[in-house]
């Protein structure tokens, strides 16, 4: 059974265990503690005790302690990637790419954190008036499973860099990579600075979010859990940063190369089996090019090889668990019962492992759950539009607002989209791209607070305002 990592050592938890299931084979690969209140308290206590000495270091000293973690992650990338594939199913090549991104992100934050500044104001002779950033204290980082290495480096590392100490609760679906990282990548840090508290949301998660010594919660996960955490945290005025789900639109107008747009759409919708917060989940296509676009998308979807992520050449691994498989299957069934047509995929692949193929749907009613609710699976509901303004309105017709993609060769349309779309990240003619140090804030039910960049580092710190006179007066 996996042990927690608290105060710089592995701490076992006796008692009932959860099973970690390989989603490709359904075999139990490890056991996980549920996360008792005692262990949650021990992790928070260790973080609180380590806080003052960690906060007393200069940003450069903390950066110098974290850079070796980045180097270790590079050296151990194969091991970390294999654990990610085993626990959540993504193809090994995608897991390796993820670890590469995680490394880049950690390096970027190491560069950024030493540049965190505050302002000062003009003052009279003998007076100083300035602001100073200080750490918030103990941060509970409660994280999901879909990019376990990236979310760790995006959230744990920045917290440590600004002087917070951390209790990291990884998802109960991806504890293998987290446990490995805690010991083998971050194990050289002073004891208590980074603690890994394993367990599920109902036990470990609940205890952490209501703990009186937790000062800040950084939560990445579903809308439902995020709303609950915000409500609980409000009772004790804990600062909360929430990066939640999405129902991202992709708009394709008639001015672009349809083959290229379809390949981009396939990657945006099917990469990681659609289990990305910024996966494309609604496709709005200009009616003039709807048919050729859908034909190309179907072709691209059929070319994707589905299978165990440990095998070479696999493009789509299993969904993370049976629950996710059930959600995706139910949404597609609901859509077809309401009149949608399946042009590729559309039902579970095989009967062992939680595989669901790349799926293309047309004639989908706008109120079908697959158009309204987050799917988190490889499903492309394609909807035609007649006018670009209509496409923007359809895209905004969601309670979410995480990201959006627009494929157009028209600069005026792109500018209109940038202005109009209610989304924190807007990508024109690409599914990728987040400049180093860039930031964004989600709209609507996709969360609150900045993820990424200097602005995120500011969210993780408090600002004091200081007024200093040379003589008492
Ligand atoms: P989830 O909300 O089920 O779980 C996320 C984390 O919260 C897990 O560690 C879980 O154990 C914990 N948790 C669950 N209940 C809790 C409770 N009551 N109290 C405290 N903690 C609790 O989400 P998930 O299924 O792990 O992740 C998928 C979701 O994450 C999707 O909605 C996806 O869009 C979102 N996501 C968002 C981003 C982003 O940056 N916006 C990035 C990745 C994933």
Description of the structure:
The chain has helices at 37-56, 59-75, 77-88, 92-113, 148-161, 175-184, 201-209, 223-235, 258-270, 290-302, 322-337, 369-372, 388-395, 411-420, 453-459, and strands at 4-6, 9-11, 17-21, 28-33, 120-121, 127-135, 138-142, 165-169, 194-196, 216-220, 239-243, 248-252, 280-286, 341-344, 359-362, 379-385, 400-401, 403-407, 425-428, 443-444, 447-448, 461-469. The mean pLDDT is 97. The protein folds into 2 domains: 4-244 and 446-467, Aldehyde Dehydrogenase, Chain A, domain 1 (3-Layer(aba) Sandwich); 248-428, 3-Layer(aba) Sandwich (Aldehyde Dehydrogenase, Chain A, domain 2). Helix 1 (37-56) packs across helix 7. The strands form 6 sheets. The chain has a 7-stranded mixed beta sheet, with helices on both faces. Strands 9-8-7-10-11-21 form a 6-stranded mixed beta sheet, sandwiched between helices. Strands 5-6-22 form a 3-stranded antiparallel beta sheet. The chain has 473 residues and is an alpha/beta fold. The protein is globular and about 75 Å long. It is built from 15 helices and 22 strands. Strand 18, helix 14 and strand 19 form a beta-alpha-beta unit.
Mean pLDDT: 97
- Helix percentage range: 25-40%
Instruction: Write out the distinct hetero groups bound to the structure.
Output: nicotinamide-adenine-dinucleotide
Radius of gyration from the CA trace?
Answer: 23 Å
